[in-house]
Amino acid sequence: MADRYLTVALESRGVQCTARLLTDKAPRTCEAVWQALPLAGDVYHAKYARNEIYALFPAFTAEEPPLENPTVTPIPGDLCYFTFSDVQLGTASYGYGEGAPHQGRSTVVDLALFYERNNLLLNGDVGWVPGIVWGTVVEGLDVMAEACQGLWRNGAAGETLSFRRA
């Protein structure tokens, strides 16, 4: 199978990077995401995982992929897939108020980009939170990382994170 690529973008900032899907290591996850593209949603900057931005989506596949190619220590350029319930993402301390768009969904998909080193997927409430590494950034990570730092320092309100076929 030929390599598949996607564009990850911060729409308002006009910044994007290119990632290659890791179809050899996470075939079910890659296929689920590929079939769901394009995807776009409000961007969040991680509070505890450190150098991560992500967007939350409704489930887009009939059956969630298994924990293939898992990690709790993502590296710069990793694209990770997480599955949560609305209850797990239901506290205001994580930045999700009662009116959050994902409330009431039995399954919430979190697509994340890790842009710098020293990440640890350890949540104080539930412990380790392994993610599926399904893609890796191959071009533009430096520009994206700079924009992500801007999200951290200046806020993410009004910004959209998008994933689309390249």
Can you tell me about this structure?
With 166 residues, the protein is mainly beta. Helix content is 14%, strand content 37%. The protein has helices at 27-36, 141-154; strands spanning 5-10, 15-21, 39-42, 44-45, 52-58, 70-71, 78-84, 108-114, 122-123, 127-128, 131-139, 160-165.
Distance between the termini: 16 Å
**Main beta sheet:** 10 strands, antiparallel
Average pLDDT, rounded to a whole number, is 91
Unreliable stretches: none
Task: Describe what is shown at a glance.
It is built from two helices and twelve strands.
List its traits.
2 helices; 12 strands; 14% helix; globular; mainly beta
Topology:
Elements: E1 5-10, E2 15-21, H1 27-36, E3 39-42, E4 44-45, E5 52-58, E6 70-71, E7 78-84, E8 108-114, E9 122-123, E10 127-128, E11 131-139, H2 141-154, E12 160-165
Antiparallel strand pairs: 1-2, 1-12, 2-11, 3-12, 4-5, 5-8, 6-11, 7-8, 7-11, 9-10
